[in-house]
Predict the 3D structure of the following.
Amino acid sequence: MFSYRHAFHAGNHADVLKHTVLLAVLRHLLQKDTALTVFDTHAGAGLYRLDGEYAATSGEAGQGFLRLVSALSEPVAPASQTPTAIKKVVKQKTTTETLAPALKDYLDLVASFNNKGSHKVYPGSPFIIQRLLGERDKLKVFEIHPTDAKTLSANIAQLEAGRQVAVLREDGFEGIKKFLPPPARRALVLSDPSYEIKTDYSRVVAMVADALTRFATGTYVVWYPIIPRPEAHDVPRKLKTLATKAGKPWLNATLTVKSSKLTSDEEGEIIRPGLPASGMFVINPPHTLKAALQLALPQLVELLGQDQHAASTVDSGG
């Protein structure tokens, strides 16, 4: 149960998608003067070193955030210097100047945690959320992993945020129930369990179902992996059914960077592809979100795609 550590996966392509969507949702919700309460049901350690032992072991940030930074820092030849024959077959490469606003916001925010030109620190969801909150807004983060909960508490303490941020060492699926509805009647709930425990798939859906009965106008954001497992494909389908029955609008965004098929090396050893894709399902999304992601996700496909299977989708309803 306590084997999963997000430090191994910090800054991977799933984090890029998750935090781009999270930021776009938060920016909109925080435009109102009324206080907002944000809940993070699986907060992890909160802050990560991409040059640390965990991240270096997996190297996943190299195909996610670091790949994005590297691709955008490569010089691009002016159109006038590009041979006509190439112009006809090669789409204009995305640059920092043509980057979608949601992606620029994401990169700027991560950069704010680092010295100029450095990319060693990667903020998890709790730190991204806290950075945007106003004085009246609240953040409640849940983490049940004993080591990560301890690290999270220490990291949050450095913020000196006082009562604005509460760290709860308990099961976020259950713990959130006592806080809904929040006093100010405005809330964002982010849930991104590891799904290493098979029951996480059903529990995240059950949590959202319960939350909608307690607080139907909250914004609910669920990250999920897209892997060859029936339970994984059930998550967005069941969340869509929940939203439809509740009469609430929904949005589902996915990013695929490579094929999910097993391959083998020259010696016949099976090579597992790792996480090929993930999605973000949002109930009661901001009306600005779909347009923002329709600009951002094709650029992520271009910049993070590893093979011809790279793709993105943005669907909505309600």
